[in-house]
Amino acid sequence: EAGVVQSPRYKIIEKKQPVAFWCNPISGHNTLYWYLQNLGQGPELLIRYENEEAVDDSQLPKDRFSAERLKGVDSTLKIQPAELGDSAVYLCASSRQDQETQYFGPGTRLLVL
Amino acid sequence: KQEVTQIPAALSVPEGENLVLNCSFTDSAIYNLQWFRQDPGKGLTSLLLIQSSQREQTSGRLNASLDKSSGRSTLYIAASQPGDSATYLCAVGGYTGANSKLTFGKGITLSVRP
Hints:
The structure holds two protein chains of two kinds. By secondary structure, chain A is mainly β. Chain A has strands spanning about 5, 10-15, 20-25, 30-35, 45-50, 55, 65-70, 75-80, 90-95, 105, 110. In chain A, strands 2, 4, 5, 6, 9, 10 and 11 form a seven-stranded mixed β-sheet that branches. In chain A, strands 1-3-8-7 form a four-stranded antiparallel β-sheet, with no helix packed on it. In chain B, the strands form two sheets. In chain B, strands 2, 4, 5, 9, 10 and 11 form a six-stranded mixed β-sheet that branches. Chain B has a five-stranded antiparallel β-sheet with strand order 1-3-8-7-6, with no helix packed on it.
């Protein structure tokens, strides 16, 4: 089966510019996660979706970050405006509802100049 | 707040050696514990998942153990190979169900020398 797909793989922008990341989860996976991974750190959860509903967004900086999963499949994570400290890898993962193994995409590497 | 610690941050061993990677966590009220592998520039690959009621899981040359009461887990790699070189992350699942939040450690970067 195809894995989690993310695009773009790399993105370089100037600070204060907007940026968006896209994720296509594994077919049939109801649960979708966005994680932030800083260099030398483990991933940290930003938001978790069950179908279209965001069930855990407590770690999402809502002043500049937003996410959506309109039809319960693909998801988009947006940052507006980007800051230098947002430079990191943004990982998307998915899992079947009530199954614990999370499958990760390759991530999008963001560099804010 | 759950905290997950993995020490040391990096480890270098000769090929063929058996090795143990350690993980500790502060809150024993967990749903599960998972070990992941991350290759440079790649996403994470799940290696083993241990339910909170289990003591260990095995897959090939990998064996993971869980001692929930002491807040510890180990990943045992038998007969290490250069292809095992990667970063290994431990993640603890919160006690809210199967899809609950994972809290990750910073990982251990393993280098297996030929």
